[in-house]
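Quick one: structure for this chain?
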Amino acid sequence: MSSASSPAPKAYAAGAQPNQGRETIADDATLLAAARTDLRAFEALYRRYEKRVFNYAYLLARNAALAEEVVADTMLAVWRGAAAFAGSSRVSTWILGIARHKALDALRRAAREGNLAPLEEGAELVDPHANPSSQASRGEEAALLRGALGGLSPEHQEVLRLVFYEELPYEDIARLLAIPLNTVKTRVYYAKRRLKLLLEKAHPAGAAA
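Got it. Here's what it folds into:
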């Protein structure tokens, strides 16, 4: 697959923070169990995770075409492996772990084939229910945050996404990234600290308010 002329990322590339309450977690497990034999259950699970997998894959690959490929590969692996899910972690942790492996495999494959495209800019989300002035204000805030996040290392960007957008426990993040729990805590601490400094530098007036 060639990604040299990758299209612009979809509007959900930055991703809204999903709800990860107990009901959602339990519902995920129920859908996954049903997905083994029920196509409609799998379709529901696919719709629930399509954007989240894309967001995470895009964060790793910075390429919309590769991220779309990762979504398809990941959800196919979820369907095939649903019966093997042991329930030792959240369904979301398991699915994002598959997505991470697929994204890294896709990046390695693209590098071997010489198909790595330049890094793309993250898409800006627009709330269709917001009024124009609110959209402008949120757009400015999103641009400021996006710029600050871009100043973080890839490791710090990834761990912040897993903490704040995916709301994964530190223990699950440690398992997903295959790193010690204390390393997760250290990365989160320094990522938050670095992000705060970058935001203050980019918007000193707002930081002082």
